Sequence to fold (402 residues):
Amino acid sequence: MILNFSVSLCLCGEILPFAQLTSELEIRKAQGLLRSRRTLASPQAPHIIVDGKPYLAFCSNDYLGLANHPQLVAALQQGAQQWGVGAGAAHLVSGHFEPHHQLEQALAAFVGKSAALLFSTGYMANLGVVQALVGKGDTVFADKLNHASLNDAMLLSRADMKRYRHADMAHLEKLLAQAKSGRKLVITDAVFSMDGDIVPLPELLALCEKYDAWLYVDDAHGFAVLGGQGRGSLAHFGLDSPRIIYMATLGKAAGVSGAFVAAEQVVLDTLLNHARSYVYTTASPPALSLAVLQSLQLIEHGDSLRAHLQMLIEQLRVGLADLPWDLMPSHTAIQPLLIGENQQALQLSEGLRERGIWVAAIRPPTVPQGTARLRITLSAAHSEADVNQLIEDLRVLALEKA
Fold:
């Protein structure tokens, strides 16, 4: 017999747990917080097919347009021919291949660090690093708008947790001064994924030096986009310090998959022995490393892509300046349009979708209550005409709203 779990069912006087889950989901739906997936039937690009319909997309983190680049596709194909499609084991068992080693060396050199360590995802990198470096008796200091993976890493570390107001250096210094014992680790996004602003890394580093703390920088949205030759947020500010531990992802602007952590060799050796999300995880396919190595070449020589992206950012900001919704202050590829109320953000997203444009509505708990937004993301693969279409359609929807 097939049971319908979309309604409350009772068994022996008790409500089945499925009914409770259904009720919770219905509450999320009423609050405008229910998440769902849509299926792409085309490669990642500005123009995509979703559920059988064509869309102009402004919701990908493929900031340089490399996810379907023919050179990366060829590198992955050739890598699979030579190295197969699976690593077969964790790095510390028999899953660490020559392409992994070559990529780690190349990434360390690219961001100006002594050594690098590959992780399967940025989420796993953050979990592994924070738990390996701090624990009971230590203190983690975290920006209140940090990514969920950094928050989870902090919780799982069992260290004392101190959260400072977003980018508020005075508040952070007050908290650092209060910590009298144990290791101190400041963790932060470099580019905040939902706001698009860049953290004041020089000021953060100065505080870490003053109070003898490590600085862990998650550069998921800055790597390959910011800094000379796309070398990331540290290069953007001209920073170089042994107390900085640097993480970047390889599935956003780099166009492939995975993440890496770069730091002093002693830090990497510590992670190799204590980062559980590294030690106990099967390594990524070695062919992916060859694709990333090819991506690094394109990133290093991609100044024209980054210049085009900056031009599109300025075009969008000028074009949307007088709308009833405010663009949040950002000079990165992440351009959030602040709407406020959840249902209004969903309605605006749906209005764009009806016009053939796909922009995601971001709602709590991903962002604070009352700050639901459209997270517009630009790519070097977009054209001026693409951005003009988005501007024009948002203007039409704004007039309809008025």
Remarks:
- The first strand starts at residue 10 and ends at 11.
- The chain has two domains: 38-64+303-401, 70-300.
